[in-house]
Amino acid sequence: MIKFILLRILQAIPTLFIIATLTFFMTRLAPGGPFDAEKNIPEEIKEKLESHFGLEKPLHTQYFLYLGNLLRGDLGPSFKYMGWEVSELIAKAFPVSAQLGLFSLLIALALGLPAGVVAALRKNSAYDYCLMITAMLGICLPTFVLGPLLILFFSSWLGWLPPLGWYSFADMVLPSLTLGLFYGAYIARLTRAGMLDTLNQDYIRTARAKGAPPVRVVLRHAIKGGLLPVVTFLGPAFAGLISGSFIIESIFFIPGLGRFFVTAAFNRDYTMVLGTVLFYACLIIILNLLVDMIQASIDPKTRNR
Amino acid sequence: MMKFLEINKLKTFFHTRSGTVRAVDEVSFSLDKGEIVGIVGESGSGKSVTCHSILGLLPQPPARIEGGQIRFQEENLLSLPEGSLRSLRGKKISIVFQDPMSCLNPFMTILDQVAEPLIIHENISREEAERQAIEMMEKVGIRDAATRAGSYPHEFSGGMRQRVMIAMALVTKPDLLLADEPTTALDVTVQAKILEILKSLRKELGISVLFITHDLGVVAEIADRIVVMYRGKIVEQGKVEDIFRKPKHPYVKGLLACRPTLDCKYHTLPTVDDFLETKLKDDGTIEIYEHTDADHRLRQLKAVNLSESGPGSETKKTLVKVSDLKVYFPGLGGFPGGAKEQVRAVDGISLSVKKGKTVGLVGESGCGKTTAGRAILHLIKPTAGTVVYDGKSLGGLSRETLVEYRKKMQIIFQDPYASLNPRLTIEQALTEPMVVHQIGKNYNQRRERVVSLLEEVGLSSQLLLRYPHEFSGGQRQRICVARALAVEPEFIVCDECVSAMDVSVQAQVLNLLRDLQKKRQLTYLFISHDLSVVKFISDDVVVMQAGKIVESGTAQEVYANPKDDYTRDLISAIPSPYNLVK
Amino acid sequence: MSIESAKSKDFISENPDGSSLWKDAWIRLRANRLATISLYFFIFISLLTLLGPEIATSSYEDQNLNRTFAPPGAESLFGTDNLGRDLFARVLHGGRISLAVGFLATSVSLIIGVAYGMTSGYLGGKMDALMMRFVDILYSLPFTIFVILLMVLFGRNFILLFVAIGAVEWLTMARITRAQTLSLKQAEFIEAARALGYSHPRVLFRHILPNLLGPVIVYATLTVPAVMLLEAVLSFLGLGVQAPMSSWGSLIKEGSEKMDIAPWLIFFPGVFFSLTLLALNFLGDGLRDALDPRAAKE
Lengths: 305, 582, 298
What we know:
Oligomer: heterotrimer
Low-confidence stretches of chain C: 1-14
Distance between the termini of chain A: 9 Å
Strand content of chain A: under 5%
Structural class of chain C: mainly alpha
Number of helices of chain C: 13
Number of strands of chain A: 0
Order of helices and strands of chain C: HHHHHHHHHHHHH
Order of helices and strands of chain A: HHHHHHHHHHHH
Low-confidence stretches of chain A: none
Largest sheet of chain A: none
Shape of chain A: flat
Helix content of chain C: over 70%
Largest interface: B-C, 56 and 37 residues
Strand content of chain C: under 5%
């Protein structure tokens, strides 16, 4: 197991290197610089700023300097938020996004898993049709439609919940629900398909032939195989939650990392963009590793590899 | 007096989109305590459905039990509520399924699965259940059961898994065991051991067994009485000896006659069609008419045998000569650059095939016989060794020249369902090789040839525009034969080409291969795990084990007088009704 | 198992014309009511957006400052926005852009993915390992983030948009195609083709390609809505098409900003967008069931 984890970390290094390089040159080759927007600052101050951040040096020198700093774990200072290190900004904004992601995922699992299992067990019944059409609607009603509609309904019309911000628990309800419903719908469909597939397996017939009562057949024999596709989906889901958080954070004005990232890109805040992208990449790699470990703990066949 | 198990006019139908299938139609038979009754039938005869109806394991819908009674120890199982039936399942009536690969839960340890029936039905502690489970596993011949019990199914071989299934079924000491083709997926030697285990456990535990199989040999070996099913109905039942000595129903006669056996007396196998004719009636049922001249036909077939074995067959020249052929595959796992364990699939075999003759290549699954067949045709590149075809070594040939040899050497595969491209019509499939090899000048000539090829393999030319999925397995195999013949080959590798078939269909295809050989002077390499079939069709026999040849010689010699221990094991493992009848 | 073989299949129907798998699949699709309705609905929407300018009474960019925030009514079917532009015209026009992005990007991903996957799967061995390792590396890149970055940094450019999205989506297509090719390569009819001396192009294009189209078509049908969603996400972040052009995503964004005053501005584009996604997803599901070989057996 330790060997497996080490191997995965080794594999992650080239990936991170490619990401760093790609992002570095993408930002630098894009038209515009970090200090172009502020037209009223005098030319000499701009030059001073640029030399302060090493921007006057040739591109490849900047690149190697950046890589060198990266190896020491230094993401550099932000160009726009003067006096802030990129790592400090990430440390400040990420917990907000992480909370949002976690709540959404919990909502998604809490709604999706039972809905999928019930639909599979009552295949082709009214329950099944209702749940699956709801799930399909959930997938086809994107967060940026659902979010505003929820605000319109619960905040503007009913006045029950606050429309924006991220301060109290009440603030968290609508954003988490918006993001969670979408993934819940997806998980419900996956769970149903996975359970149906498993319930058709020969070993379920064996379990019934042993006289196992239906609850035991489902909980002890079918659930592991049935949930395997959901576990596999968690990897892409984490990545999806991250990009989903961009939208949610901009709808609900949440001071999370997603908003920082988009603003930083608009502002040509090179170090901030690079830092965030690398942070996201690491996050996805770690979460994928976690997913693989969960998968191995369920499926003995993958465990041996 | 009440019977132990009595099935009375059972009717189980399947209601599908394309109509009702009368899978089991008014079936009645009974089983005494401690008795082993075998239900024999070909695929679609309804034998498995009968067995699954007893435990209420059929998916409903599409299945529906339309009538009849199943009385087990005085109770009608069909009128029992689901809860009471459940308390019988795994406790008083257990079942062993055909495919041990898919019937064990891959996510649970063996121990958990074997102990589960006890945990469900008996009021005992977990430790006690596990102790009894391990004890039963040892009884069915799993060595070191205590240490291996924590493993998962994928770490066990097929034979071991089937033992696990049997242990799981017997762990609660049931009164009745339903065995649904329990040995079909296994090698003969493993099958022999499993049958041995079942017989001894039946004595020890005093259980009754309902044994479902398609194999008459197996049923003769294990059963006291036989029930023969055909298309949902019982056509004959009785004591094993009676059925084998004096079958009454034409279908049973045909079934017994069409199996190639080790002491087969025919050159051309009789087929079921020699004994009976079926007619599909409007209501979906089938009417059977007996041929009155069946005995006469049989005598004719036997007569052919005598005139056939003419002299002068030894003067033929060698067409294919294989010397020291090796095929190694890189092993799985291991780090790149590290020492890899090579899999020696074929490890230095030598054989030669004479023109117009058949060499049978026998061996159990995984012995390398299939790989050998492909390497001889250079479909797989051999690691070492030479194949000389008609005086020319295939090894150094360029791609272009090898394509020329493809015309002369063909192959027919095991699974006729997978060996035809599902997107091409029969005409397209048969025309294509002619287009590639420029046989026939134009469309009309090729079409004519396709029609004559179809007729040669016994199919109507009306079927030209149909797609493979519209045909039965036997018909598809005929199409595959026709496709191979389209390039006018001299040498054909038959790779387990009748293994997936019912005996009655198998007999037809074997006869076809024989007829074609005679007519076209074909040379065969016949690869099979089935020793009886190989004996029937081959002039020479080669026995393979673990990539090596352990014995070879003429078919007569090898079967009558096997020199190698492994060959002897193989031959003695074949279940045969004649041991019993003698 | 027993059900199929129990049918007396030695008795083949009288009709001399064979029924191809495609024809069978089409019949199964037509039997699926939800999928059939979705198919017609989708054709209807496509025609509507294609012929949109001809149907709408005013152009999507005509401003009428005398009629701002007019609710839906006889004069303008879906109401007007803050500049008095006719929402009906804008929804139809936006649909054209959204669908175009969906189809173009899917086509890009389809062509690259199938070609790459088939090559990799057919070659097999070390080349396959290398090519798939490359896909794995690309897979582990946070691609949505890159697409967003690309759009921010290089400006909103229609061509860049679908190239970028297509570049994300081809990876899965390549994986599916490769897996299919690999398993087909094992199939006995491919071995038979090799034994008969067929050339590689013949095996690839006549025997492998037609047999892997099923899953590819299903996945492509499901990629179109996924791409439309990604485009809408970008538009919603202000990175999609530029005003006065509109896509459903950008219309929804505009609508969400003004929904307190004029809820119809988010309602109509939202409904059109969601219904189209719904139809495509149902169609994709229906196709999967219709083309699934397991379903074909029953």
